[in-house]
Amino acid sequence: PVIRREDYKPFPWLVPQVELSFDLGISKTTVQAKLSVERNPAANADPVIHLNGDGLQPLTVLIDGEPTDSWHMEDADLLLSLPGESHEVTITTEIDPSANTQLMGLYASDGMLCTQCEAEGFRRITFFPDRPDVLSTYRVHMTGDAEAFPVLLCNGNLEASGANDDGTHWAEWHDPWPKPSYLFALVAGQLVANTDSFTTMNGRKVTLNIYVRDGDLPRTGHAMESLKKSMRWDEKVFGREYDLDLFNIVAVSDFNMGAMENKGLNVFNTKYVLADEDTATDSDFDGIEGVIAHEYFHNWSGNRVTCRDWFQLSLKEGFTVLRDQLFSQDMGSEPVKRIEDVRVLRGAQFPEDSGPLAHPIRPDSYREISNFYTATVYNKGAEVIRMMRTMVGEERFRAATDLYFDTHDGEAATCEDFIRAMEQGAGIDLGQFRLWYSQAGTPKVTVRLEHDGETATLHLSQEVPATPGQPEKQPMPIPLKLALFDRETGKHHGEQLVTLTKAQDNFSFAGFAQPPVLSINRGFSAPVTIQRDTPVEDLVFLAAKDDDPFARYEALQDLIVSHLKQAVDGALDLAAMQSAREAIARALGAVLADDTLDDLMRGELLVLPSETYLAETMLIADPGRIHEERQAMRAALGTMLEAEFVALHQRASAVPFSLDAEARGARKVKTQALIYLAAGNPELGKQMAWAQYQGADNMTDRQGALMVLTGLTGIERTDALMDFYNRYQGNALVVDKWFALQASSMHPACMAHVESLAKHPDFTLKNPNRVRSLYMAFAYNPHAFHAASGEGYKLIADVILALDPINPQTAARFVPQLGRWRRIEPGRSALMKEQLERIASAPELSRDTYEQVSRSLG
Ligand code: ARG
Ligand code: ZN
User: Closest ligand to 318 CA?
Assistant: First the structure.
């Protein structure tokens, strides 16, 4: 069935209190749930209470302590007739966590028990109104074998615990903050904690624990530091203080997503907790800092103020992503973080917006909500709130978020509530801006700059493309930061913000005797694409001189993208090709030589636009041609700048290991240099990469060198891969890297490698990290996935079909890659569609996969 946003109705019953009692066992856990229920005065009365279930059978059902048979099952749900206004409903169920391969609800992960309830996992534990607008306080009693489960954790505070004579022990937890069921969590297992503490701005002393497996304790330091920084930052920047005496994090190795913000008991994928320099890269360290912050920030944007229904998901996710992005900007390099975030948006969200799965940040309908944990809801959602912040400025933005938190604390709110708080708190009219919540598709802004006499006139027009279900669009407010540079002095008279609200508009700027150079959408102030025939000399000017580092990056990217597009189209003869490559080499050469740049920024400027992004800029893409031309360009640059890259690599190699920005920057440019050198001069690249691999005293250098070697042929490749595996065999997260490097490699035999890795004893479809490390890496490796034979498509379709019965949520995440078929050249397109149809015709598809496949076929 399709769930629609317009059908929202408040639940007829309130459930102010819940008492849960768990008798824990890996293959049998008994759950007794006691719900105090009362009529919801704000809803239409209904004598029947509808309790969601998923794969449950009730063992007993009691009303006010008495057995009853006034219930029946409706599909997986339990419907119970209640005679009066308020009752106590007690239901007992039994579940088998060891059989739970979906990893939703209560499941087993290497001998421990843990939960994932967002969005609709709680109904796999007990019958309950499993919707985010039913808020309850929870008291939880749990009993389990003291040896198998020495640590017993739940939300809130530990109130009592003790031992029984039969080898079991128990704990009782109470969470004073009313919450929806999706924020419930329970963990039981053999765990050890890194314990620390934090004193809040009002003097509350909070105990912090990060629970991990015994041997992993030494790798929790960075996560703990990140947590304390997050807590301090949220106080300082958003005025948000933590509200319990205890904050627990548990790392688990089987997890569908990154992490989960359960009240007082965050559950994390080990990937976002464990790090040290020998086993984690610099970008892993950043990922941990960002995800720890994200989940912590949810305590206010998500938990204290939660969502009314799942259509409002971006209310908590878009806002929390913005909060974690701003935090990471403050912790490290602001422009570098901005570039990374825009790269993710363009690489993951733009393709969503331009394909069959396009949806607004606040969707209107779904079949399976898990399919809407998307880059659109998360990352575009963050961009939409960032635009509001840009329009009103930091101070008024803060006034508005204060108002939002104050007004809706303890409530299940809507995106509309957020917008209204923004209007009132910041004093801005967002009437038209609301379209960003309802319209899907990336707006295209066409830009033309005219110069006449002393005046420069900017002609802007916008078009929001049609998307499935939304053929007609209205113009939206698009805030564009811009600057006009004087060609002679290389300076401008200050950045301005213009907001394009109409389909077309002009903006005039006086005082320009000469045509200025336009820098537009600075800092990526709006999540749009800019269409403009920018003169090459202007791009070269901006790539060298723009004082906005993002705009400078953008100009360099534009220069490369426009060249590659022409090359892919076959529009360039040899001479034109050569002169364009020389121009790009000069621009990159300037980046290499510019000593005002730090290496972290230099590293960003050196990254070529991805094949996915290049494909996205074309109406119909030929992935084979894109790969060839991009590799050819990389090789040409590697050859033309060989001496410079060798010198850069040498300089950077002299910087000793540390986690500070300078040393991290050095590591980043070092591997960038290797990538170019390996493309231009494979023998030299191989020798240098092998030397970097052997001399590495940290994972960033080691992985970077191995990545380069994995794309080449020769004995060094084999030796390095074998050495890496042997060295880190016992470490699942590093073995994941070993799989991923091979599946994402430039090696022509990548597909064959993936096929044989699937038979490796360490490979399993049961662990999502391992599945992603092999198959996601492959599906997002354009040259391998888009093999002209169609074998890559078949391989991914086989994975979807094999994984669907085990873990439908993860299986469905592979569908969007095949869903790109309409935007790919006809030969491959037909092969992609064929695989989608093969999946569609399989018997008994999960709701997750069915929805994605049917939307993809359109
Ligand atoms: N709320 C979590 C986060 O953003 C993600 C949980 C997603 N769960 C799911 N089943 N899709 O951090
Ligand atoms: Zn989140």
Answer: 2
